[in-house]
Design goal:
Chain lengths: 225, 225
Amino acid sequence: MVILPAARPKTARSERFQARRESIIDLAAELFARNGYASTGVADLGEYVGLERGPLYYYIGSKEQLLADIHDRVMTPLLRDSEAIYALSGSPLARLRLLSQSLLEQVIGRRDHVWVFLHEYRALTGSRRTRFRQERETFEGYIRALIAQAVKEGVLRSTDTELAVLSFLGMHNYTYQWTATKPGITPNRLSRYYCGVFFTGLAAAAIDLRAIEKEASRLRTQLSR
Amino acid sequence: MVILPAARPKTARSERFQARRESIIDLAAELFARNGYASTGVADLGEYVGLERGPLYYYIGSKEQLLADIHDRVMTPLLRDSEAIYALSGSPLARLRLLSQSLLEQVIGRRDHVWVFLHEYRALTGSRRTRFRQERETFEGYIRALIAQAVKEGVLRSTDTELAVLSFLGMHNYTYQWTATKPGITPNRLSRYYCGVFFTGLAAAAIDLRAIEKEASRLRTQLSR
């Protein structure tokens, strides 16, 4: 019986490919954040990651694709998390609290990526630009829906929902500008602070922030299951 | 809310020079915001403003000086206003409300300048960088002092003042990212909204936002006198 060697699993190869690709994307985010997207050539990137032009293009496709990939490294986990959080059965404020933390995990954990895409998203064209806008809109939609639900339930004041969404996002997103100067700060602590200000600021009546923290902790365990 | 008249230029010639210089700075802000600071050469700028290299350098000094000037076009009126606001005899919250509006007037009215300096300030070197940091610190100092005073007076909750300052600034500054998409929004309305959320969010007890608006209006008339 001739035993055939096991077919090399496709996944192992593509897994390695994927891991290498992601590490290149992360190094590119570092380089673009430091020197600017326009000023950084593919040759600079090749030197930085230690690859010749040919192999580099094999991994990245194109410079614009790389910019889209930098965006995806933040947006893919953020959308995955926020979809799961939104789907939980829980109060809108506890879910907003989890969503806030998920956003801050990206803003703090991937601040080079966030720096690059907040500054350079206008360099995306065609379908990449469309997808970027749609994903951003999807994410903002979760926030808008949860705020609207909290207003409907009488927990938050009836307010200009659009300005509420923009205030919430602004407070969170701007964190990328200063997070490097406060290395000790955690997404959990910052989220608790921002949500404390925001929820109290828009509360219809006195609200119990500790109850929201408690429910958010309980919901979190449902996510990790 | 540019309240105080600018220092009178010494002569008619320097007035003309100054006006031309400012218009070049504003056009440069437009160009840098659109195409990036690093990718825009002095030659591109010359073409855009309609000046040969020699006369252009006569007005701008250098490209880095231009970046510092773009920053000054926002920071000079902002610091002048905020110093005057801070010096008023009024409650800390009413003064914060005026300061918030003054900041939003710059962020909304000079969004190209704000776009450029929030993205490119790291290109400033030496004394220009030092001055930029000092001015930023001076402005943040007014916010910090007013929040601290409100806490001391028992109007705002005792809180992490640094996070309070960062939340306040983040909500305001991030406005530059979306203000172009909401052309109808006024600094006054937006400031009222942000301060409403922020003050209520950090209030030690129920606060009367209408009383704060009233006092802010009264203080405003003292500024323009």
